[in-house]
Amino acid sequence: MHLLEVVPGLAMLPLGISNAYLWHDPGGVTLIDTGRPGSAPAIKAAMQDLGLPREELRRIVLIRFHRDHAGSAAELGPTGSARRSSPERTTRRSCTAPRQSHRSPWRSLERLAAMDIDVACFGHGEPIIGAAHQALRRVTNPLG
To answer: Which positions of the chain have pLDDT values less than 50?
Structure first.
């Protein structure tokens, strides 16, 4: 299994077509997205590899209720409390970027590019680690 430490306390778990993230802080473990149905064993194994006991899973945050993001949520309850997160989740160091609708991905990208973030994590594809705001600005304004 390939785990990527994005920043200390945040690991990305590629689950085929989408990614899940495990965030560990003093409040416990937060799982961001659960992948397709049948992904629970891989997520449990990732937690074990990271030394995170299953009982530490406190929250499951689902970026979207699409099958590739929420398909294993039921398998991973009831120790976590599943809830949907639609606004961007940001800290000074990192950001996860859900699209608000299929019609507004460009506006979402522009909002992210306006933030000063070091790391951007996505439900599909690789994260941008280090000066993510610069990479996002190049995409939204290629002529500078």
So the answer is: 80-100
